[in-house]
Please model this.
Amino acid sequence: MRHGGLILIFVILFLGEPKAQLSEALNNVTLEFGGGISRHLTDMDMPGLNLTGFGGTVRAMWHPEHLLSVGIETGYQHIYSLQTDVTPFGFGKENAEVSMESVPVMAVLSMRIFPRSLPYFELKYATGFYLLISRGSGFGNKMASTQFSIGVVAAATYLVPVTGTLSLGGELKYGYISKIQDSDLSLQLMGSWRFLTW
Model:
């Protein structure tokens, strides 16, 4: 009788495992969103220069039945802002402001490299372009200009499920913008909503 019970437990465990694997192997689509602090990495150094600001991410990801996921990403990144007093000849002292921010549009690859020991940890690589927005004001005038630049992003994301469809965590992200040959580093609080599964 005892042997029969052990066999029954073994059969239940053996047959139960593929079901758990099958449920984890479903295709799903998630919307990832977050925001935090961004620091522009550059050797520029002048009074009134602010290299720290807000960074935000919106990302849609398709997670198929393997470890590699694909998606698209956009968001917002503060690059720098500068407030300074300018004294051009014959005009007197005037406060001038200059700033630059970026909006990325990129294709993303993501992979869980330690699916058993760290199932909620993913590494991401993205490439595409940045829309760079420059603004300035001074002497009663305002200006704005835009330009495009190719760029790349690398990120490490850790998201822990809190419900059946919602995960929360954080992300450390590094981005490089070729047009200005500078990079930025951001730390963001992230959320992920799984809105489609099949």
User: Anything to note?
Assistant: Residues 6-23 have pLDDT under 50 and may be disordered. The chain has one domain: 27-197.
